[in-house]
Amino acid sequence: MTTRTTTTTTAVAPLTTQDAEILVEAARSAAESAGVTVAVSVLDAGGHPLAFRRDDRAVLIAGETSTRKAYTALQLNAPTADLVDAVRPGGLFHTLPTALDKPLLFIAGGVPVQRDGRLIGAIGVGGGAPEQDHGFATAAVDTLARASTAAVDALTRG
Q: Residue 32: which residues within 8 A CB-CB, separation 6 or more?
């Protein structure tokens, strides 16, 4: 007797340029409210840039750090704030930053973006203190989640 198991996979909408613009604007707005100038990078699930913005007065390196933070959050599917201790001596990923030829950056400010529990991209914020950057990125992801929920609710009502 053979038993068959059927697995159903539900497609998840990818991160769109519209989503990316929502993320950039939400992070920039949160930073502006705190009086901080930042750069914001948004990557899709493949690590490709979807959106980028650097405030005129943000330090120039913020552009590079925001992109590396997003890339790190995407590749490890974890906020970079949660990974800082892992790269310290004795940490789980202590040698990872030098073992790979990839632009990883283990400083708070990178946050993965998920939809229906699946990784669809990441956002990185640079320019403020690491804790501030993390807060701006998290606020942006929360804003996108609320916008997505509102859109789904509108479709189901209509």
A: none
CA distance 143 to 152: 14
Least confidently predicted of 16-25, 101-110, 119-128: 101-110
Q: What is the pTM of this model?
A: 0.87
Please answer whether residues 123 and 113 qualify as being in contact, where contact means their C-beta atoms are separated by less than 8 angstroms.
yes
Type and span of the H or E element at 63: helix 61-76
Written as one string, the DSSP assignment of 96-153 is: HHHHSSS----SS-EEEEEETTEEEEEEEEESS-HHHHHHHHHHHHHHHHHHHHHHHH
Q: Under a CB-based contact definition with an 8 Å cutoff, are residues 13 and 115 in contact?
A: yes
SS3 call for 44: strand
Tell me the per-residue pLDDT of 111-148, one tens digit each, with 9 for 90 and over: 999 999 999 999 999 999 999 999 999 999 999 999 98
